[in-house]
Amino acid sequence: MTSRRPTVTLASTRLVRDDYIAPADLDRLKAFAEFRWEEFSEETSWDKPPATPPAVLSRFIAVCKDTDALVVCHGAPQVSAEVLGAAPRLRFIGELEGDRFAQRIDVEEAAASGVKAVDTTHGSSYPVSEWALAMMMIGLRNAGAHFRRLISGGGWMDTEQRHADPGYRMGELTGRTVGLIGCGHIGRKLLEFLRPFHCKVYVHDPYIPREIADAYDFTLTTLDHVLSVPEVIVCLVPLTPGTRGMLGKKEFGLLRPGAVFVNVSRGPIMQVGPLIERLRKGDVIACLDVFDPEPIPVDSPVRQMENVFLSPHIAGVTARSRTRFFELMVDELWRHFNGHETRHDLLPRTLADRRGEPPPGR
User: Fold this and answer.
1) Do 163 and 232 fall into the same domain?
2) Neighbouring residues of 143: CB distance < 8 A, sequence distance ≥ 6
3) What pLDDT is stored for residue 249 in this prediction?
4) Rounded Cα distance, 49 and 355, in Å
5) Which sequence positions are flagged as catalytic?
6) What is the C-alpha separation between 230 and 173, in angstroms, rounded?
């Protein structure tokens, strides 16, 4: 801990200040640092940094000049080389949420300036992994088809119908072979949830360190193997230039008959036409929290398919996930100011993944 109490500044919209910060977490932060909030309302996107007017940028630079740690979120200008050059005390920048492509932080300039950059956007990964687990089990029981039949006035299943149902043949998750497309924060939390089910897990993710496979006891393999070998496949990759449309006719054709395909990541990762073509064969089940486009068109065939379970992009949207972003950031700030290593650094490997570039050092 430094002898002087560090100053931590949050730059964000008022909504972030009011909704993302739980009193208990703010109290934890104030136990070791001074806290300031500065309101900004710049428009930002995943595709480009905010275009900040000179007057707003000047105010932002003035805010950053005497702070030791800067936390940014929706509304904040970009922490650029100009900002970093005017902030001699700044040694920590944290992104709370909504910036998986590092548009509010110039990470390379931060590293060159000796400033730590971290990102707790994955605070929403916890509920996504829970919903992924739920959808895996829904798909294995063919529960979507049962629900459709019952609410439409269909009869109770007799013994013969039960035995013919995919949910009877597949049914249980315990002991199944599972494939994960992507194994970042969501995937690793899902692996924790899968431990009691004793599943054999295959993972395709060219960006994770190989030792992660040993720590979590899974097999790193190709995308083709992850699609063709497991009985349940879960798509968890972020949408990047490298993953857009990565699942097409060839990939959906690799799914084994009876397989369950779950997508809780982003809709444009799937080529919808080939997915629907495979689903029309009736030999696989899809559980989709995301689609392309969203909302799902009212005339889309997936709305009527019995082998499809749908939810309206709700996997990561919970009240608890909003306050978790700041909770995790306070943890990181405590580690940083007490001389410990932070956990959620923005690294070259992270940025390569988000930009769809080849992973460094592999």
Assistant:
1) yes
2) 137, 167, 309
3) 98
4) 14
5) 266, 294, 313
6) 12
Give residue 1's pLDDT band: very low, low, confident or very high (50, 70, 90): very low
d(CA 300, CA 304): 8
Q: What is the pLDDT of residue 255?
A: 98
Domain of 32? Answer: 7-119+319-355
Domains in the chain: how many in total? Answer: 2
Domain CATH number, residue 344: 3.40.50.720
Q: What is the pLDDT of residues 13-45, one digit of tens each?
A: 999 999 999 999 999 999 999 999 999 999 877
d(CA 27, CA 35): 10
pLDDT tens-place string over residues 50-81: 889 999 999 999 999 999 999 999 999 999 99
CA distances from 94 to 70, 110, 241, 303, 343 (A): 6, 11, 25, 40, 12
Instruction: Give yes or no: residues 151 and 134 share one domain.
Output: yes
Please, what is the average pLDDT of the chain?
Answer: 93
Instruction: Return the number of other C-beta atoms located less than 10 Å from residue 335's C-beta.
Output: 15
Q: What is the pTM of this model?
A: 0.91
The answer to whether residue 294 sits within a structural domain is yes
99 and 137 belong to one structural domain: no
- CA separation for the pair 95, 106 (Å, rounded): 11
| pLDDT score, position 236 | 97
Residues 211 and 232 placed together within one structural domain of the fold: yes
Closest CA to 58 of 94, 86, 81, 37: 86
CA angle 172, 318, 137 (to 5 degrees): 5
Residues 59 and 95 in one domain: yes
Decide if 2 is inside a domain. Answer: no
Tell which of 310, 331, 347 closes a domain.
310
DSSP string, 121-182: GGGGHHHHHHHHHHHHHHHHTTHHHHHHHHHTTPPPP-HHHHHHSHHHHS---TT-EEEEE-
CA diameter of the chain: 75
Average pLDDT score over residue span 259-284: 97
Residues above pLDDT 70, as percent of the chain: 97
**Length of the chain measured in residues:** 362
